[in-house]
Every structure is written in C-alpha cells, then in structure tokens.
Amino acid sequence: MPARITAPRGTRDLLPEESAGFARLEALASDLSARYAFDRIDTPLFERVELFARGLGESSDAVEKEMFRVSGAAGSEEERAEWALRPEPTAGIVRAFVEHGMHVRPGPLRLWMLGPMFRYDRPQAGRYRQFTQWDVEVIGDPGPMVDAELIELAHRFLAEAGVRGAVAHLNSIGDAACRPAYRQALLEYFGAHEDRLTDDSRRRLRVNPLRVLDDRNLDPDLAAGAPRSADHLCAECAEHFAAARALLDELGVAYELDHRLVRGLDYYTRTTFEFFVAGREGQQQALAGGGRYDGLAELLGGRPTPGIGFGLGIDRVLLAAEEQGVTAPVAAPLVAVVSADPEAFAERLRVASVLREAGLRVRPDGSSRKLGKQLESAAKAGAGWAVIVGQELDAGRVVLRDLAAGEQRETLLRDVATQVGGG
Ligand code: AMP
Fold first, then answer.
1. 2: left (phi over 0), alpha (psi -120 to 50) or beta
2. Are the CB atoms for 403 and 378 separated by under 8 Å?
3. Helix axes 90-99, 49-56, angle to 10 degrees
4. pLDDT digit string (tens) for 85-134?
5. Distance CA 80, CA 70 (A)
6. Is the pLDDT of residue 214 over 90?
7. What are the C-alpha distances in Å from 142 to residues 146, 262, 269, 306, 338?
8. Contact residues of ligand 1, CB 6 A cut-off
9. Residue 388, pLDDT above cutoff 80
10. Phi/psi class of residue 37: alpha, beta or left (left: φ > 0; alpha: ψ in -120 to 50)?
11. Residue 288 CA to ligand 1 centre (angstroms)
12. CA 276 to ligand 1 center in whole angstroms
C-alpha cells in the first residue's frame, strides 16, 4: 500500500465539526464590516517579495525568517521572479490603493478583507503556517477618532464572538519627527547592556533597536528599565495619543498601556495596539493587532497618505471562544427525504427540490434499502424529520415523520416547511 500523505506541518484541515464555529466568526466579520461601513477588497494570496521587504522592513521577522517563497513553473520565463505568499494583508491592500489610484475616490477609504495569511514560523499551539485573518483598514484619515473607532470595533468583535475579558494593549511609537531620538535612546540603553541581549536582539539592535523590545526572549528586568516611547513623543504625537485614549475612555473600552508594544513591522507610526484575554498575554496569544502606518503609501510609491488598520486572527479567536465554552449555533432543522419505493429517485429529488426552495435543509436518501433502514440512517445523520415519498405524491401529499417522537401523519407537501418550523 502506498504511504499516506499528510497535511504540511503548521497547517490544519477544518473538519465539518470545526467549520461551524469558523463560519460563525467569518459571518460576524462580514456583518461587523458592513455595520461599520467598510467595503470589501481582495488582493492576491502572493505578491512580489519586494513589496513585503519594502513595506514590512528587511529586519521584520515576517521578511527575515518567515517568508514563504513561491516560484513560477520550472523553465518558465517567470521562474526567477520572486514572489511570496502574503504574511499579512496591509502591504497588499496599500499596494492596490496606490496601483489603482484610489486616492481620488471620496475618502477616507474603509476597506476590509478576510482570508488566509502564510508565515513560515515554528508551528505550535495557536501558531500556524497558514491562518485566517479578518482585516480592516482606514486609508486617508489622520485623526485620532478613527484610532478609537477601530479599537472599539476589534473590541466589539471579540465581545460578539463570545470572548470574555478581552483587553487592548496600547502604545504610541511616534513618527518621523520623534522616533529618531527614541531609537537613539534605545540604542544607547541596550548598547550598554549588550551582554544581556540574545543573539537575535544584538542583530536587531543594529537594524531597528525598537524591535529589541518585542524579542520574545528579552530579559524582563532589562525590558522594564528600557526607555519608553510614550516618554519620547513630539508634541503632535503626544496630543494624538492623548486624544485617542480620551475617546476610548468615553467609549468605555478598557485598555492597558504597554511600552513594549512596538509591533514587529517597520511601517507602524504612532498608535499600536494588540488584544489579549486578560491573564493570557503570551506571544502566541494575541487575538488581534494593528496600528497606524502613516508612511506606508509613500514607501510604496504613492503620495503621502495616513492609514490605520488591524488584523484579527480567526483561528485564535475561535480557540479562545471554545476554551471559554462558547459553542457554534445549532444549524436549521434537517429533513431527510426517503421512500419505500427502491426506485423512486426522481420523486425523492423532486420533493427535496421543493423543500429546499422553501428554505429547508434537506438530505435525500439515495439508496434502495428498506424504508426502516433509511429512517434509521436519517436519525443518525441528525435529521429531526423525514418526508416519506409514496403514491400520494400524485395528489401533492407526503407523509411527514417526526423522528424523535416516532409519530407520522399525511400532509400537503407545500405545508411541510411550516410544520417543521423552518424555511
Ligand atoms: P500580527 O500582524 O502578527 O499582529 O497578526 C495579527 C493577528 O493574526 C494576531 O493577533 C493573531 O491573532 C493572528 N496571527 C498572527 N500570526 C499567526 C499564526 N502564525 N497563527 C495563527 N494566528 C496568527
């Protein structure tokens, strides 16, 4: 027998019993996007490596270690072109914004996306190589109100998903005016303690000292004493940050200031945030993360355009909700269509078609087994009702059986939907 082929490490199959929970969160993402007046956008699953290198920064983990490279068909012209599966959605969305000249549209633009992201990271609980993100972006709005609006949106998603105790971590990492002095302060501080840094951090220190702060293995005492970006903000950034926080207070959205929250990507400016369940604040436990990226459009060849967004991990939110005992909603009642006539396939399909048109969830039995056997497997498949098709169909009538009660009666086919309480 040939050896079995298994799914690649870090990926997972969503089996039917898991997909109802997943679908519920996808529907919530779509519904909330509509309620907050976002328009859907979809960008390709792969892009030029250059986009991520420029947009995310060469020193980001996503570019340095986690990029999933893709090449064209062997021997093709494009074989050497360097593409990568998208590790995150913002760079692709802003690339599309610039490419399609979307700055001329009435703004600010409010865009959302839902789909898989890919990172070649070491797989573990809550960290996959393919995962699904719901992403929202507002492009063209510099003010702090939208910062608060987006944080409130992520907060609402988690609440409506049934996750209790979600809390936002919040920071501001300044802008082009004040970041250089902050970088310098970090460089001096960590430079003086280089012996206590991991190899990874020593390298980060040279390329982007902010990223030392999100080193998973940074000595906690060293981290606690590090200069804080919030203390190094210029007047404009300080004012923006204070205004965003005041709005969150008004909205009653709980947050904690977190000076280590610099986010892994180079494009962030000013506000950064992540969501956790209180008490579960490890690296693999962030449920959502985002921030402002006022310099990104320009970096990608567009005109200077402010932007802000977040990505929310559907897989992780599902795990968190399940851990808290949230279950997926029960599906609409299932109706089986069966018949004592071993050859009445056309009739079974015709009846199934009529019931589906009335909105019911219908599973016709395609076997020629005895009626009793068909009813038995209908009940096993979770059907609450069976419609038994026989001679009386000529008069527009069928037998409707309540499988749990074991009772049945003859009825008009067109009345079945009202009688089973669906449709
Ligand atoms: P990030 O841009 O890394 O902050 O990602 C945004 C959100 O996506 C995180 O808060 C997680 O919920 C989710 N996420 C990121 N990486 C992974 C991963 N490897 N596996 C599962 N979910 C992830």
1. beta
2. yes
3. 110
4. 999 999 999 999 999 999 999 989 999 999 999 999 899 988 999 999 99
5. 10
6. no
7. 8, 19, 11, 5, 62
8. 88, 119, 121, 126-128, 131, 133, 286-289, 311, 313, 315-316
9. yes
10. left
11. 7
12. 12
Q: Mapping DSSP to helix (H, G, I), strand (E, B) and coil, where does residue 25 land?
A: helix
Pocket test for ligand 1, best of 127, 316, 318, 319 (most atoms within 8 A of CB): 316
Packing angle between helix 314-323 and helix 16-35, nearest 10 degrees?
A: 110
* Tokens standing for residue 234: 């210029």
Please choose, from the candidates 422, 404, 395, 420, the residue with its C-alpha nearest in 3D space to the C-alpha of residue 412.
395
Least confident range of 36-50, 117-131, 321-335: 321-335
Q: Which atom of ligand 1 sits closest to the CA of residue 310? A: 6
Could you write out the DSSP letters of every residue in 112-143? EEEEEEE-----BTTB-SEEEEEEEEEES--S
Structure tokens at 9: 């490490």
Its pTM stands at 0.91
What is the distance between the alpha carbons of residues 127 and 336, in angstroms, rounded to a whole number?
40
Plot region of 411 (φ>0 → left; ψ -120 to 50 → alpha; else → beta): beta
Task: Supply the residue whose CA is at minimum distance from atom 10 of ligand 1.
Answer: 288
Angstrom CA distances, 365 to 278, 348, 375, stand at: 49, 8, 9
Task: State the helix-helix crossing angle for 235-251 and 144-160, rounded to 10 degrees.
Answer: 40
User: How far does residue 287's CA lie from ligand 1's centre (Å)?
Assistant: 7
Count Cβ atoms below 10 Å from residue 319 Cβ, excluding itself.
17
Which amino acid, one-letter code, is at 142?
Answer: P
Looking at ligand 1, which atom is closest to the CA of residue 263?
4
Cα–ligand 1 centroid distance for 277 (angstroms): 14
* The two three-digit tokens of residue 254, written as one number: 């709980």
Asked if residue 312 lies in contact with residue 135, where contact means CB atoms within 8 angstroms, the answer is: yes
Collapsed DSSP state (helix, strand, coil) of residue 287: coil
Query: What atom in ligand 1 is closest to the CA of residue 312?
Result: 7
Confidence of residue 42 (pLDDT cuts 50, 70, 90): very high
Nearest CA-CA partner of 93 in 73, 69, 77, 115: 115
Place of tokens 């960008």: 43
Which string of DSSP letters, residue by residue, matches 50-87?
Answer: HHHHHHH-TTSHHHHT---EE--STTSGGGG--EEE-S
Alpha-carbon gap, residue 322 to 326, rounded angstroms? 5
Does the pLDDT value for residue 423 go beyond 60?
no
The best mutation among 60, 120, 127, 130 to test binding of ligand 1, ranked by most ligand atoms within 8 Å of the C-beta, falls on 127
Nearest alpha-carbon partner for 212 in 235, 189, 232, 240: 189
